[in-house]
Give the backbone structure.
Amino acid sequence: MPEFKKTVGALLALAAAGPALAEKTIPTAARIVDPAAGWDHLWRDVLIDITVIGIIFAMITAYLIWKYRRRPGNEQGSAPRLSAAAAIGWVVIPSFVFMADDFYLAANGWQLWNTFREVPADRLEVQLESGMYSWDYTYPNGVQTQNELKVPAGKPVLLRMTSRDTLHNHYIPDFRVKEDSMPGRITYLWFYPQKPGTHVVTCTEYCGVMHSYMAGQVVVLPPAEYQAWYEAEGAKVKKAAAPAETVGKTPA
Amino acid sequence: MNLKEWIFTTDHKRVGILYLIGSIAAFGVAGIMALLMRAELSAIGPTVTADPTTYNVWLYAHGAIMILGFQIPALTGFFANYCIPLMIGAKDVAFPRVNALSVWLFYVGVILALLTFFIPDPPDVLWTGYPPYSTITAGNTALYTFTVLILGFASIIGGVNFLTTVAFMRAPGLTWGKLNIFVWCILGAFVMQLIFVPVLGSAVTLISFDKYLGTHFFDPAMGGDVLTYQNLFWFYSHPAVYVIFLPFIGVVFEIIATFARNPVFNYKAAVYGGIGGIVLISGEVWIHHLYVSGMPDWLRIGQMVSTLLISVPVGLLVISLVGTLYKGAISFETPMLYALGVVFLFLIGGLTGIPLAITALTVNLSETYYVVGHFHYVMAVAGTFAIFGGVYYWFPKMSGRMYNELWGKIGFWVTFVGVNIVFWTMMDIGARIGLPRRYYDYAQFPEAASAQHLMTIGAAILGVGFVIALLNWIIGAAKGPKAGDNPWGSPSLEWSTVSPPPHGNWPSPPSVSEEWSPYAHGRR
């Protein structure tokens, strides 16, 4: 019976959400595509798109305003009556132009969206619990840090996020990525740090009085340096955990 | 002037003017909140107040009062009340006493909203009121709930009234195809209010149940879900954007047709394709407010497509608007400047919305200053310019007097420069460095300081522009020169009666001929 329930549940979930709901994993061998670079590329394309449309519209409007200003000899509007064909044409043709642009943008946007949601299999996976007003990270070996996420350069990082109180949103502007963390649900985001350096983390979901002070940082370290830190901290955790099982959370 | 006559009035024009006075007062208060916030943000660290809660209360008051106390009541309260019976040749609305009830409920709502500044622990939940914060804050969430409920109720009874009025009280000969675009826009807006306001009402009621009565609708620890609220809230609050957009674009249509002395270009496309299309699509795009809230991917992608498709009806409306200028005889009095200003602001605001429709771009853009800049252009400032333009346009009808043209134009240009400084900078800083919105302080973004400073200066400029306009109206209403019944030369029905119109509007009910239309210039 439980088996049956499980199957039905899985089928229902599949029917309701489709495969897109499940977090996707791509094989290790595939080249890792950096979503942040994809973001910059699409942003530039869309800016060009809207700038061109904006300038065309603005120039047509400005021309009409100047050409048909009221002056002696032009005291009364003389717009021609639209024929039925012209009226329909002025609906159908612009609608198709707008829709063509919409679908072009949607297709590109969907592609980039998949990059943001398909996490490479070879990755560092960190649990994040947010709370008023801190970011608490837990590494696979039990190491915990607060407001500072240390990661190795050259390896994708996946954050599995939840919250212990209000809504928060883990935003890393340099990696162009954010997602809400909230109580009762687990969300995720991933990013691809490639060079050592530090990057601001900041909260972008109104979470309470000190919302604007809920900041932290991502510290990208050279792989060897990261490994040394990770193992040293891991050993400390082991030692502390040995006498009694008091380390709060078990990594899920 | 007899105060008692105004309090007990059931005349739609007086009800409308009461709506105008209340909503302009709300605009003033919410505007002061904006200036206080801009002053606070002018430099890093505490400047005006050292208490972030105070800032968060300003933030709440600015958003909630601007939307619920100013824009919606000014557009669907004042303009609808004042203009619709006049435009359709009716003596009054269908239910004048219900109408009076709605304006006084609106005043109760505004007073509740203003109580924010006098009670201990005022609400600090933004105009969105997301749980779990709104259910655990020390702030008074109940005040938020009741403000929304009262204003929503006022709007619903207004909606029933206007749908009935337009359906049954049009002048003989005034067919559906001859209605002013503005009347269609108000119909569309009220259809959306009637469908969606109850959803908002349920959402904010459930928060107060959770906070004060111990229910757990939004508490995951007890089987609730925090995202349910966000879905309910935006299921109303995205259409609310169109409840503001349709009437304001309707006002702009009236102004442009009059000052270009032309009929509206492709009227049927604007009505069925533009207004109808927006009403149809308005309920299927709310997920774009939840693009980074962990909604299922198929919903985020599906509503990306529906959100992008809004460009079709909106594009048809803009083509009708700009097409009305073609072969016109355009003059540039103050209302027309505001109307053309709306076209410009709306163009920027609409196009900068396209990146925000694309789910993958919002992972960087959402919740930043870019969003704030975008929605101020497209809705807040464009809507406010349309309201100001509309008040200037119908000013001679309402008061029988003329405002000062020179000061009107000065006020327009000062405001126009101010808003572009503020909101262009805002979009730029948001897209460039990702500066998050709703921040009392921004120490982690030191590179934003100069832009913040510039925006504060811009805000002061635009504030001066609005004050010039308000003074212009007050002085014009008191001692402007007599305006005459139809100073703009419009064939629309509201200009066919005397200014200001008496109770009952016309001595004998008007009727219209076969060849008449509200835009048939030179054929009167």
Remarks:
- Residues 52-87 of chain B form the longest helix (36 residues).
- Chain B touches chain A through 89 residues (CB under 8 Å).
